[in-house]
Design goal:
alpha+beta, 103 residues, two-stranded antiparallel sheet, two-stranded antiparallel ribbon, single chain, 52% helix, 4 strands, 4 helices, elongated
Length: 103
């Protein structure tokens, strides 16, 4: 039944999608934020890995500045919207914080 519904806007037919990205926030077809949280986690872990690699050559205050300006905005962007809908953070999501703190 779900596949039989067709929605038209003007002359265009809207196609069914598994997820949608709106203003940088990804929501799946069940209105959950899990795809967005997973994407942010991957991005942040990559950035943290780069900062940790460079930390051997940089003073701690520069590493902290890099984290605050390069990683933290990704974690905070639209968090007011999606952080409550995720429930308890998974162990994988806590790895982002643990990785940075273990410095």
């Amino acid at each position: 039944m779900e596949d039989q519904v067709k929605v038209h806007v003007g002359a265009s037919e809207l196609c069914k999608q598994n997820s949608v990205n709106y203003l940088g926030v990804t929501v799946d077809k069940h209105l959950r934020w899990h795809p967005h949280v997973d994407k942010v986690r991957r991005q942040c872990l990559g950035k943290i890995a780069a900062i940790r690699s460079a930390s051997a050559y940089l003073p701690p205050h520069i590493c902290r500045t890099l984290y605050l300006s390069y990683v933290l905005p990704n974690l905070e962007y639209c968090s007011v919207v999606w952080h409550r809908g995720v429930g308890q953070p998974s162990p994988a999501n806590w790895n982002v914080y643990r990785t940075m703190l273990s410095g």
